[in-house]
Design goal:
about 650 residues; alpha+beta; 5-stranded mixed beta sheet; 5-stranded antiparallel beta sheet; 15 helices; 19 strands; globular
Length: about 650
């Protein structure tokens, strides 16, 4: 195949994939991933004449009770005695917890934590009032919440978080373990398929068997580590908590915990079956004794085992949440199996088969693997397009969310692998049949010079090694995607935050601005529906609830100051302003900014705060502070695709 023809064919494939992908994104509708809070009983901010006997939370999708918790705190921060969490009969989307005894008049805070069907932790808090609260209890949540006009759930003042623990130590370790598990699956499945179908003689090669063994041991070890890390990750506990038997017992009650146990059992069964099969194959002859039917049956067995292993991922990741769950799980299993056969086979090809062999010794195996790789690429393209439509859903989510950014980078790397793969495919076409070299050419070849056929194999091996290197980065990005909120959900929450701030400002007649001060810091009232304006720093110097936080993301233009103001700094629904100022003192807009709040004593949060842009360098949130005390506000600011930093500031809430 000529170089020009190869370039045209690569360009055609890339254009077809990108066009189909964008067409699906433009025409996509709405779908949700992660469990979102729909309603609570009592409702957020509700005032009750009599004390409730239980608390109920209803979500958009089924949630696990394992590692879940619902706490009820009185106005002094003391825990109210409650019963065990339970699902009402036939309703896994609702969590109910009975309240033991009666509640006195006052304001009560409910903090909750559950895990959604895709195994991600979701947590939040809301408040309600029994009777008439005393003056010491702070503002009545029922009155304060009138500014939002909504109950708990999307677009409410009931704050909720989707487990932003990815950058903690336990979060980083969990991400590393996920990447190692994917690598182990690829190495194990890809090598097994390669020696069973493409190169049966490899069953007698110690390097191939060693590669297969390393893959199985790596996958088993990563699975055990994931089982130990999941409990502390969900419960936001330190790494040392992995030694707690009670936490492990709760982990086993979750969907992911059960899937990990099933994966270990499957690995044990497949290891025994694989050992018996390898012993049988080792007693067979060379390639010529293996007909096509035998290779097909062996390949089907490897694919069946790989599909069973892949299902333990698909049953507890993004595929298990949202719309079209059965179709999504099947597509995800096909995607994982195709990935494992292709990438793992590349490793076996480049590390075991090609080194030290001439073209005649690798021709048959390379030809078979080339056909397998083409089938895998087709499966990956089809299932990848479907997953992109389902989990991203729009061009805005693709270009404006972390999930979309990582996904685009992953697709770009896959396209690089495809370009390299087309080069390997052209090698196969050039070596369809053994070449017969002229005798004169053989006799006149300089002593010590490499054989032309061996040089061709070395060139192919360099291409394969390049594919393997890029494939390693693809596996890392796949692990990142598993723990990243999908583009649909992230974009929907941003829209919800904007709606909350705009609606609260309009309904409250600009109260958010009046409580903080005008441009000159004198506290003038705003016009109804006006955009809240951040007060100037000199006028804010003595305002309670203010903090000035320097930040440095480490990249160009990554230095500046965050001015944080909570006004009034009192219990109830309040207004939080964030102003981002560059080194030159001018307002700057970061690529992304997010905030969370946590109270240490009693333990409440961390809780994500919905943040919406009000003007250049000015962001607003409407948090609920249900309890008095020193809250820690955490602000994460990102100034480029890779430059990010998290800073904190204490705020005293009275």
């Amino acid at each position: 195949m000529s170089r020009r023809r190869l370039i045209r064919r690569c360009a055609t494939v890339v254009a077809a994939v990108v066009t189909t992908w964008l067409a699906l994104l433009v025409g996509a509708g709405q779908a949700w991933a992660h469990a979102d809070l729909v309603s609570t009983q009592p409702a957020n901010g509700q005032r009750l004449a009599t004390a409730p006997h239980e608390v109920r939370l209803t979500f958009t999708e089924p949630v696990d009770l394992g590692l879940g918790a619902v706490k009820v705190l009185d106005s002094a921060g003391r825990s109210v005695r409650t019963g065990a969490l339970a699902h009402p009969p036939g309703d896994a989307t609702t969590v109910a917890v009975p309240i033991r005894g009666s509640l006195r008049a006052g304001v009560y805070t409910v903090t909750w934590q559950v895990t959604s069907s895709d195994s991600h932790p979701v947590r939040g808090a809301f408040a309600f009032t029994v009777g008439e609260p005393s003056a010491a209890a702070g503002p009545d949540p029922a009155e304060a919440n009138a500014g939002t006009g909504t109950g708990a759930g999307r677009g409410s003042a009931a704050v909720e978080a989707a487990g932003d623990d990815a950058y903690s130590l336990i979060g980083v370790l969990s991400g590393v373990v996920r990447a190692l598990a994917f690598a182990g699956l690829a190495l194990c499945v890809g090598t097994a398929y390669f020696v069973a179908v493409c190169w049966p003689a490899g069953t007698r090669d110690p390097r191939a068997l060693r590669l297969l063994r390393y893959g199985g041991i790596g996958l088993a070890g990563a699975t055990v580590a994931a089982l130990l890390f999941y409990g502390p990750y969900v419960a936001d506990l330190p790494v040392g908590a992995i030694a707690r038997p009670s936490l492990l017992a709760e982990t086993l009650q979750t969907r992911l915990g059960a899937a990990l146990v099933v994966r270990l059992l499957l690995l044990a069964v497949l290891a025994v079956g694989g050992w018996l099969l390898l012993r049988r194959l080792a007693r067979r002859g060379s390639d010529q004794t293996d007909d096509r039917r035998t290779r097909t049956l062996r390949g089907a067995g490897v694919i069946a085992g790989a599909a069973a292993l892949a299902a333990t991922w698909s049953a507890a990741n993004h595929s298990a949440a949202g719309v079209q769950v059965p179709v999504a799980i099947v597509a995800d299993v096909v995607h994982l199996v195709a990935m494992a056969v292709w990438l793992g086979g590349l490793v076996a090809l480049g590390v075991v088969l090609l080194p030290g062999r001439g073209a005649d010794g690798v021709r048959a195996a390379v030809r078979r693997f080339s056909a397998t790789a083409m089938a895998c690429v087709a499966a990956l393209a089809a299932t990848g397009l479907y997953q992109a439509w389902r989990q991203v859903g729009s061009v805005a989510a693709l270009t404006g969310t972390d999930y979309g950014g990582v996904l685009m980078l992953k697709v770009a790397l896959v396209l690089v692998i495809l370009v390299l793969a087309f080069g390997a495919r052209s090698w196969v076409r050039r070596h369809e049949r053994p070449a017969v070299a002229p005798i004169a050419h053989s006799s006149t070849r300089r002593r010590g010079a490499p054989h032309p056929a061996n040089s061709e194999v070395a060139r192919l091996r360099r291409s394969v090694v390049g594919e393997v290197g890029v494939a390693g980065m693809v596996l890392i990005l796949t692990a990142v995607l598993v723990n990243t909120e999908t583009g649909r959900t992230a974009l929907a929450k941003e829209d919800s935050a904007r709606t909350d701030v705009a609606g609260a400002t309009a309904l409250a007649g600009g109260d958010a601005r009046g409580t903080t001060g005008g441009q000159d810091g004198t506290g003038g009232a705003a016009e109804p529906g006006a955009t809240p304006t951040m007060p100037t720093v000199p006028g804010m110097a003595t305002v309670p609830g203010m903090a000035t936080i320097p930040y440095d993301t480490g990249g160009p233009g990554g230095q500046g100051t965050i001015q944080l103001v909570v006004q009034p700094p009192k219990v109830g629904v309040t207004t939080m302003h964030l102003a981002t100022v560059g080194k030159d003192g001018r307002p700057v807009d970061p690529v992304e900014i997010s905030a969370a709040a946590k109270l240490t004593e009693p333990d409440v949060g961390p809780i994500n705060l919905k943040v919406a842009k009000a003007s250049q360098g000015h962001y607003i949130s409407l948090p609920i502070f249900p309890l008095a005390g020193q809250w820690t506000i955490t602000v994460t600011i990102r100034t480029s695709d890779v430059d990010q930093v998290t800073v904190t500031a204490p705020v005293d809430i009275r």
